[in-house]
Design brief:
Largest sheet: 3 strands, antiparallel
Shape: globular
Order of helices and strands: EEHEEEHH
Strand content: 25-35%
Structural class: alpha+beta
Amino acid sequence: MKRITYSGGSFLTSNEIADELMSLTANLGRLNTAQTVDIPVVNETGDVEVIELVVGPASQLTSRAETSAYGDPIDETALSGLRTRIALLDPAKPVSESPAQAGGTFDELGEL
């Protein structure tokens, strides 16, 4: 698990959630925007709960590995949601087709 320090407090979450949260925060900072996210965490008694964070360019998060007697708060929906948010922040990449991929030849398409 990893301990995330955020806004004067800290919480434990899974390695995967922590890594994606850090990536999302960095990408939001690059775009100078913020979002709210729900993160599954392990509380002091070992129970899993969900916290809501606002992350963006002003967020100062740190992440460090930590051994815990409690199990990882694995939440595939939250993990997938973080990954989707990150993917949506990446700039669109132009798609380019070669003449062969487009179903033609150089002769049919003219000079390029």
